[in-house]
Design a protein that fits this description.
transmembrane helix; 20% strand; transmembrane; globular; membrane; 336 residues; seven-stranded mixed β-sheet; alpha/beta
């Protein structure tokens, strides 16, 4: 004869059952980088542009994050998104990046450089000033074309201009639906002694771990992938590149990452300060804007040591990698 169910035990079990039912299901598709299992990591992140919600899955092997599901149409999530793409720091950013290129690859001296996702062309201008024959790709090529640059809509369209001695992907790889396929295409365009630079937000950095779903640079669903150093190096190795140098900070990215992510934790409207600095249409209430303005100098003072701590600990908000086709370290470059 079976035992009689205990109503009290049933009541205790119900909250646990409800918790299990409401959790997102385990994603069974393998990791696109290392084929390990993906598991739910963030759930119900709201896109600041469209209001739609997305999840982020994480690989138990290489640590890469994958936005889920991929939007059927990406364009609605970019409407009004960029503003002035790099805001008030554009020129500083371009100078810092071309200094890295010069350190690793030397002056242009008429050699060819390709900037994948060149935006308004600020970095192309800095590269041209250092002697590079610079071209770019961009979904909206008109702003950079107005500066006199050849800008294409895809890598295939600029293939005849190669081989390129330098290819840069400054915060563009995370937007691509198939990063490994994109880097495979880049590999075909790079000269035998060429250098590739890739910058992405660091999904394993202090900022990501501190702020979680409120992290500014998570930016779903425009960021389809969320890279770790392990995952990015693996993609490069899979596509016949060898990483030769790593950096763990882009100052203005890391600083605004600390500032805005902290504000996102306490304000109902996300990215109010970031929208103002990048000259986008302002959102949120008057109180959101006042609090953001008052907090900016205070949070900046607190964030500065955190930026340098992240870089020193190799756990910043941004990850930069230089890679070569030959796998040999350039004489002028430094790595980890």
């Amino acid at each position: 004869m079976g035992s009689i169910p205990d109503p009290l035990e049933d009541q205790k079990a119900q909250p646990q059952i409800i918790k299990l039912v409401t959790q997102p299901a385990i994603q069974t598709d393998p990791c696109p980088v290392c084929s390990s299992q993906l598991f739910p990591y963030f759930h119900g992140i709201t896109d600041s542009v469209t209001g739609r919600q997305f999840d982020v899955l994480k690989c138990e092997g290489c640590g890469v994050g994958v936005t889920h599901p991929f939007p059927e149409q990406l364009q609605p999530h970019y409407d009004g998104y960029y503003g002035s793409r790099h805001g008030i720091t554009a020129n500083y950013r371009a100078k810092r990046r071309i200094a890295l290129v010069t350190k690793m690859a030397g002056m242009g001296q008429g050699r060819h450089l390709l900037d994948v996702g060149c935006g308004e062309g600020t970095f192309l201008q800095a590269a041209r000033d250092r002697g590079w024959q610079a071209v770019g790709t961009e979904l909206n090529p008109d702003p950079a074309r107005r500066l006199g640059f050849d800008v294409f809509n895809s890598l295939e369209e600029c293939a005849d201009l190669g081989p390129f001695s330098c290819v840069t992907l400054w915060h563009s790889l995370e937007h691509m639906t198939d990063p490994r396929a994109a880097i495979t295409k880049v590999r075909r365009l790079v000269a035998d002694d060429g250098v590739v630079f890739i910058a992405v937000p660091d999904f394993e950095g202090f900022q990501s771990k501190t702020f979680g779903e409120s992290w500014l640079h998570l930016d779903v669903p425009r960021h389809l992938y969320h890279f770790t150093a392990t995952a990015l190096d693996r993609v490069l190795n899979q596509t016949e590149f060898t990483p030769v140098a790593h950096w763990h900070q882009e100052f203005e990215y890391d600083l605004i990452g600390w500032l805005q992510s902290a504000l996102n934790k306490v304000l109902p409207t996300p990215n109010v300060l970031f929208d103002f600095l990048s000259r986008k249409k302002l959102r949120g209430t008057l109180m959101d804007r006042v609090v953001s303005g008052i907090a900016m100098p205070i949070f900046s003072f607190v964030s500065l040591p955190l930026v340098w701590l992240g870089a020193f600990a190799r756990s910043g908000g941004t990850l930069l990698v230089a890679a070569r086709t030959s796998g040999q370290r350039l004489a002028s470059g430094t790595g980890d």
